[in-house]
Amino acid sequence: MPATRELREVLVVGAGIAGIRAAETLRQEGFDGELTIVGDERHAPYHRPPLSKKLLTGEVHRAGVDIAPQFDLDARVWRSASAVSLDATARTVHLRDDGRDLSLRFDGLVIATGASAREWPGGPVPDGVMMLRTVDDCLAIRDRLAARPRVVVVGGGFIGAEVAASCRSRGLDVALVQRASSPLLSVLGEELAPRWADLHREHGVDVRVGVGVDSFIGGRHVAGVRLTDGTHLAADLVVIGLGVTPATDWLRGSGLRTDDGVLCDATGAAEGAEGIVAAGDVATWWHPLYERHLRIEHWDHAASQGEAAARTLLAGPGNAAAYDEVPYFWSDQYEVKLQMLGVPIDYDAVEVVEGDVAGWEFVAAYGRGGRTTAVLATIPGRVHAYRDAISGGAAFPPAPAVSSASVSV
Ligand SMILES: Cc1cc2nc3c(=O)[nH]c(=O)nc-3n(C[C@H](O)[C@H](O)[C@H](O)COP(=O)(O)OP(=O)(O)OC[C@H]3O[C@@H](n4cnc5c(N)ncnc54)[C@H](O)[C@@H]3O)c2cc1C
């Protein structure tokens, strides 16, 4: 598609998977105007999922996590350059690059700035208390693992659970501290999340649930954590995984709505602005299937939203198609691959529809109001057989995709 008068210059802010997929799609769909990609990291774009898994354990090398470009993007790429503000009326993004202030004009803007790890709320932390979001974070943590530290992981979300698993697989002493009654509770629910607590315990992790961290012990370097129940855990390394915050600071004053990410319609167009789309961890899109705004922090979703957002820009106002893909994610812990298709938000029923939970080979469905809304599986690839059941709102529980033997929770 030759650049139209309306869309001659497209600016992508954020060089993660959402931004790169958006840029690729623009070129793939024939956009031949000016394309600029701005990212504030010094690295070439890379995949984040290995940072808590094989890059942390050392099973893959640094270069193995780079996003391999599908073809020449023919784009101007700015690395280590931060977008600091957006003037939506003047259609300009202001940047800071190596101490210089610059302005970039655009006809179309893709906001793909992702999210940042939530800082420890209690102020400054001693050396050895670390967070994991970037490749630099991962390599800094990995360096420390070489000294075989006692590790405490704070927070039982996916990042915390995966870091605990990776550290255990390196034979380290690991404790996992989680304020809720189980790791992964907020995503998997109370019926199935406790199995992942069992999984960690079976692998030798000291799992502490229903308790928080009161403070860190130690002087310059961390020596342990003091829990809210008064107990102490010795630690040479603490990894905090308290979730993320969408990276929208630079959009303050732009007129865009950013209550929990950039508020978008079902096509990814930012509400109240023309020619501006958002995708990935930073974006909150209306999802027609779930009939609500969702901000999803998963790789597959960020990639396909980036593609959809690019198509929305190319289609122009009023012509873009709604994006109604069923969200998907995976998580690897020890030998178990967890895969989830759909979003089990506000589910009122959960049932194992294939296999055996105790044996770690199962498919479980989540339902709401008698309809199937999500499917969780530990049998690799099996969730995809339930795509139609979820997108079509099939009666709950869905029929098993294959016949199964006895089922038990
Ligand atoms: C350790 C880890 C493990 C994960 N594992 C899995 C997994 O197993 N499965 C799964 O489905 N998902 C996983 N995820 C989540 C997945 O990686 C994210 O959902 C995905 O990376 C989001 O992509 P994104 O492009 O929206 O944002 P990001 O990857 O965050 O990219 C945004 C980019 O924009 C840059 N940026 C931010 N602000 C500015 C600014 N003002 N100016 C310029 N640039 C800016 C950021 O530095 C970043 O480089 C994991 C995430 C992490 C951190």
From TrEMBL:
Example of a GO MF term: oxidoreductase activity, acting on NAD(P)H
Short name of any one Pfam family annotated for the protein: Pyr_redox_2
Coiled-coil annotated residue ranges, if any: none
Source species, domain of life: Bacteria
SUPFAM superfamilies: FAD/NAD(P)-binding domain, FAD/NAD-linked reductases, dimerisation (C-terminal) domain
Keyword Oxidoreductase carried by entry: yes
Stored InterPro entries: FAD-oxidoreductase/Apoptosis, FAD/NAD-bd_sf, FAD/NAD-binding_dom, FAD/NAD-linked_Rdtase_dimer_sf, Reductase_C
Domain FAD/NAD(P)-binding: 9-306
UniProt cofactor(s): FAD
Cellular component, GO annotation: cytoplasm
Keywords in alphabetical order: FAD, Flavoprotein, Oxidoreductase
Domain (Reductase C-terminal) ranges: 328-399
Record has Oxidoreductase as a keyword: yes
UniProt name for this protein: NADPH-dependent 2,4-dienoyl-CoA reductase, sulfur reductase
